[in-house]
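*** Fold description ***
***
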Amino acid sequence: MAAGRVHVVNIEAMQFQPSTLDVQAGDTVVWKNKDPFPHTATAVDRSFDSGSLAPGAQWKMVVKKPGSVAYFCTLHETMRATLDVKPR
């Protein structure tokens, strides 16, 4: 099986960019906090949680399970995005 791709979500201007990301199972997603204050990337269903990401910090996760997962920042709950995972 080929190695998965790496995708980047920038956390910037109080938004996840892109707000919807299409990936395949086995891909890696890297969240990079470019804001001057902490954020989290936390699945609504709690299937993943980055914990608090300080300014300049990043967190990565290999996605395994196909499906659509809504996530948000627990510190700024209006910040929301979706991860759409397709089977490989």
User: Anything to note?
Assistant: The mean pLDDT is 97.
